[in-house]
Design goal:
This protein has helices spanning 14-32, 43-51, 57-63, 68-80, 102-122, 128-155; strands at 55-56, 84-88, 96-100. By secondary structure, it is mostly helical. The protein folds into two domains: 8-122, Arc Repressor Mutant, subunit A (Orthogonal Bundle); 126-156. Strands 1-3-2 form a three-stranded antiparallel sheet.
């Protein structure tokens, strides 16, 4: 006899639900992009650099809600793999700015195809409007949490 498991607890709290979907999305994308090595796990990060050439490491860490120290080893790896180039800021030698290399741009072109296929699977049965509404709601939630985090930092 099959045991009935109550899964409603996973969908009663938005943070838990978002994390559950994030895990499922990450697994799907990673499984379908495995042939590209470890780079797919950094697709969002690489996309930020691609869209914002010359972005500083500190800016990138902030936008991704990471502490600067945690992003350095990731960038070390991506740089060693020939995907990201770091350059000193000519006005402030303490600042490192980021660019994709030609190999990084080539990889992003290939990963973008895999990402589009992933999006198609993830949003099957959604209208374009539903997908856009979900993305806007997530963007608002992210902004709320960013403001909350900034407020906590200013008190500390």
């Amino acid at each position: 006899m099959a045991e009935t498991i109550d899964l409603s607890v996973l969908w009663e709290n938005a943070s838990v639900a978002v994390r559950l979907v994030q895990i499922a999305a990450y697994k799907d994308f990673e499984e379908n992009a495995r042939r590209f090595g470890q780079a797919p796990r950094y697709y969002g990060l690489l996309g930020m650099i691609e869209a914002n050439p010359g972005l500083s490491q500190t800016q990138l860490a902030g936008y991704l809600h990471l502490v600067r120290a945690s992003i350095v080893p990731i960038l070390d790896k991506l740089s060693a793999d020939g995907l990201v180039e770091r350059r000193l800021d000519p006005k402030d030698k303490r600042v490192r700015r980021l660019w994709l290399t030609p190999n990084g741009r080539k990889l992003m072109s290939k990963l973008s195809v895999v990402a589009q296929q992933h999006e198609t699977r993830m949003f099957a049965g959604f209208s374009k409007g539903e997908k856009q509404a979900l993305l806007q709601l997530l963007k608002r939630a992210n902004a709320n949490l960013s403001r909350s985090h900034e407020a906590l930092e200013s008190v500390a």
